[in-house]
Design goal:
Elements: H1 3-37, H2 55-84, H3 105-131, H4 137-166
Helix pairs in contact: 1-2, 1-3, 2-3, 2-4, 3-4
Length: 167
Amino acid sequence: MALTEAQALFLPVSLGTIAMIFSYVWSIFVMNKPRYALKEFKHPYAPWQAGQDDPQVYRGWKASENQREWLAITIPFAWIFALYAPTLDCLTAFIPLPLPALGSVVVEWSILAASLVWAHANLEYMKGYMESTEARVPPFHLRTNAFKFIAFGAIISCLAALVRLFV
């Protein structure tokens, strides 16, 4: 595969990766605003100590930990999906689909769309969680659904690659 072909194939997932990472970095700024406003704040963060026990800051810290975990899980799945998406074309031999080339442009750009939804929900999750534990739930579900699309896409495309080996 020529370099320009590889760049074209991986452009959507590259943009999606940037968006997901940026949503986490931006969330750090959202979390830090009230955190550094605490007069007693010191590193390392110790939410059990007086002066650092602000509930909004604590929820932001917990949200940040959750975001980091999800980011580390989601990005590899997105890249696996992008790498094996072209193999989904072999499924049209078994399942009649209206798309002539499922693993081409449609799937590759749907990875970007799902990544953008994930990134938006990730940022809203931080904002919601800092507001209240209840406000974090809708963005959490949205991010989870975007993750499911990416993860199941990765799994199905890997299975399609396995089928292609034996068919």
